[in-house]
Write a structure and sequence with these properties.
The complex is a heterodimer of chains A (435) and B (158). Chain A is built from 17 helices and eleven strands. Chain A is an alpha/beta fold and 435 residues long. In chain A, the strands form three sheets. In chain A, strands 6-5-11-8-9 form a five-stranded mixed β-sheet, with no helix packed on it. Chain A has a four-stranded parallel β-sheet with strand order 3-2-1-4, sandwiched between helices. A two-stranded antiparallel sheet of chain A has the order 7-10. In chain A, helix 6 (108-122) crosses helix 9 (218-230). Chain A is globular, with a radius of gyration of 23 Å. The termini of chain A are far apart. The longest helix of chain B is centred in the first third of the chain and has 12 residues, at 27-38. Helix content of chain B is 44%, strand content 13%. Chain B is an alpha+beta fold. Chain B starts with a helix and ends with a helix. A five-stranded mixed β-sheet of chain B has the order 2-3-1-4-5, with helices on one face. The chains are: A alpha/beta (435), B alpha+beta (158). At the A-B interface, strand 3, strand 5, strand 11 and helix 13 of A face helix 2 and helix 5 of B.
Chain lengths: 435, 158
């Protein structure tokens, strides 16, 4: 199963440059192409030097929140009575996102090296890669790479002939979007239901097994070997200020050449769709783009002429999120999109807190009612209102993730909701009082 | 109950991956791998894994109930999962699911009378750039056309 697309000449391949090489997942190929060079460098460095290099790169978390990675690494306490751990979030399940899968499938050693660099930075000796259950085949690929690394002195004791030691294991999930949220993932790793934890304390202080834990997304770890090889400042230069380097953007939906492409932060979104993605399919017009997974508010076509970096997309009212960019053409029914998104969040809400559990359930019911042609005008207002009231009132970001796209769709495409209501023969224009 | 020697060896190794006294962490992988071998998470399996990890059956049960890939009732020998989430929907995932329902005569989470095939409408499986996608057991099929779906399903019915 070859899953990398034809590379585009417009890409900047920093972490995906080994994709497509023969046996790209093997240690031999990795070593022949800069593999474990950053590790050899880092074992001679102090933890602070490693962290400073990551800080200089202005790398931000690739899982969705976009938190500065170097800063996160510096939060793990230097002195700790408890052992420190590394956890890799490979529970990729944000709709629209399929990059971590490629990074593991095509280049598992890059992830191992990134984890080892994190381990040097925070002083951890053990780590787990939490892989979503659906990605069963990746566990075999990862386990094979881990075994190769042990055999060749890149894992275990005396790594690179020094006293640095580290053990790494894979851990399978069992189907739950919520487990992509870091604290729910830690609960799941401990063998429990994946419900989120209250924070603080953050995982850096009390994470896996209540010990200080460094937890990052697959792509975040995969970016670190390149940062140490080329230097943090040079990596930062590739992107824009405050959003350094490159990132994998997963293009899907109504485009001619969907695929996962690596581009510098700040790459123009319309150039990405039109030149790398070959434009909207079937010669149709662009209607909207979801820029960073289904949790990110969609942008209307006229709002899409912006650079793809964390701050520019935030300024446009959305998020770069997990890099799941979904393109929608002019024929797309936005009411159906809103319903499908809400069906997802309703299914995946863990049920722990009421605003999310009830909010997503009622939003789904109301959106279903409108789609089925039984909606009233007041339903449209109520959908927007209910979603607005979920914002910031849930235990973890899943509630916000459900509310934000809903608010945006209702606001930007209210006319489409009204068209559905207009088809309801029993629609009333005003709320009738029956007292 | 006993598992195959291979799986027992895997379990014995698995519990060493977690810190001393935190072996409960092996529960979800054990349930997944156990289910892969037995076909479903049986009452007997929950009791056995609970006993091994020092958990009550109810503690195991509440974990099983949370995860969508753990099934207490057996799924078919071939479990067909069709993604209809946004990226797949935009490229015909919902129509593929309808087609699968029709062709198999099954609905969401239903199993054929002979236990051979089961169907499930699933959430995003991480194949968005190769949509629409389906999974048969753990095997991905990408950019599935209606013709290809027919062929895949006919292959399973044989």
């Amino acid at each position: 199963m070859k899953l990398f697309n034809e590379p585009s000449p417009l890409e900047t391949r920093i972490i995906s440059f080994r994709f497509g090489l023969e046996n790209s997942a093997s240690l031999d190929t990795y070593l022949a192409h800069d593999g474990y060079k950053a590790l050899r460098k880092a074992v001679e460095m102090t933890p602070d030097d490693v962290i400073n290099e990551v800080k200089a790169s202005s790398l931000r978390g690739r899982g969705g929140a976009g938190f500065p990675t170097g800063l996160k690494w510096s939060f793990v306490p230097r002195a700790s009575e408890k052992p420190k751990y590394i956890v890799v979030n490979a529970d990729e399940s944000e709709p629209g996102t399929c990059k971590d899968r490629l990074l593991i499938q095509n280049d598992p050693h890059q992830l191992i090296e990134g984890v080892l660099l994190g381990a040097i930075a925070v002083g951890a000796k053990k780590g787990w890669i939490y892989i979503r259950g659906e990605y069963n085949y990746l566990i075999a690929i990862m386990d094979k790479a881990i075994a190769e690394a042990y055999k060749n002195g890149y894992l275990g004791k005396n790594i690179c002939g020094t006293d640095f030691e580290f053990d790494l294991y894979t851990h399978t999930g069992a189907g739950a979007y919520e487990c992509g949220e870091e604290s729910a993932l830690l609960e799941s790793l401990e063998g429990k239901r994946g419900v989120p934890r209250i924070r603080p304390p953050f995982p850096a202080i009390s994470g896996a097994f209540q010990a200080p834990t460094l937890l990052n997304n697959v792509e975040t770890f995969c970016s670190v070997p390149a940062i140490l090889r080329m230097g943090g400042a040079a990596y930062a230069e590739l992107g824009v200020p405050k959003s350094g380097g490159t990132r994998m953007v997963c293009m899907s939906g109504h485009v001619n050449k969907p695929g996962v492409y690596e581009v510098p932060l700040g790459f123009p979104m319309m150039k990405f769709v039109n030149e790398i993605g070959g434009g909207v399919w079937k010669g149709r017009q662009l209607k909207a783009i979801i820029p960073g997974g289904s949790s990110s508010p969609l942008l209307k076509a006229e709002e899409c002429d912006i650079p793809m970096d964390y701050d520019s997309i935030a300024k446009a009212g959305s998020m770069l999120g997990s890099g799941g960019l979904m393109v929608m053409d002019e024929t797309t029914d936005m009411v159906k999109v809103a319903l499908r998104i809400m069906r997802f969040y309703q299914h995946e809400s863990c049920g722990w807190c009421i605003p999310c559990r009830e909010g997503t359930t009622w939003l789904k019911k109301m959106l279903q009612r409108v789609t089925d042609g039984h909606g009233q005008t007041r339903d449209i207002d109520l959908i927007g209102d209910l979603a607005q009231n979920m914002l910031g009132r849930t235990f973890c970001p899943l509630g916000d993730a459900a509310a934000m796209p809903t608010i945006a769709i209702v606001k930007k495409y209210r006319n489409e909701f009204e068209a559905y209501v207009a088809k309801n023969p029993f629609a009333v224009s005003e709320l009738v009082s029956i007292s | 109950m006993t598992f195959s020697p291979e799986l027992e060896a895997k379990f014995a190794d698995l519990v060493t991956h977690y810190p001393e006294g935190r072996q409960r962490a092996a529960l979800i992988p054990m349930l997944m791998f156990g289910q892969d071998e037995i076909g479903s998470v049986t009452q007997e399996m929950m009791e056995e894994l609970g006993r091994r990890l020092g958990l009550s059956t109810m503690q195991v049960d509440e974990v099983v109930g949370y995860y969508s890939m753990l099934h207490k009732k057996p799924v078919g020998k071939f479990h067909v999962q069709v993604c209809t989430n946004v990226a797949c929907m935009l490229r015909g995932g919902a129509e593929l699911y309808d087609q699968a329902c029709h062709k198999l005569g099954l609905g969401h989470k239903q199993v054929s009378a002979d236990g051979r095939i089961s169907l499930e409408e699933v959430e995003c499986m991480g194949a968005c750039s190769w949509a629409p996608a389906i999974q048969v057991n753990y095997d991905f099929h990408h950019e599935v056309s209606t013709d290809q779906l027919n062929k895949i399903l006919e292959g399973l019915e044989k």
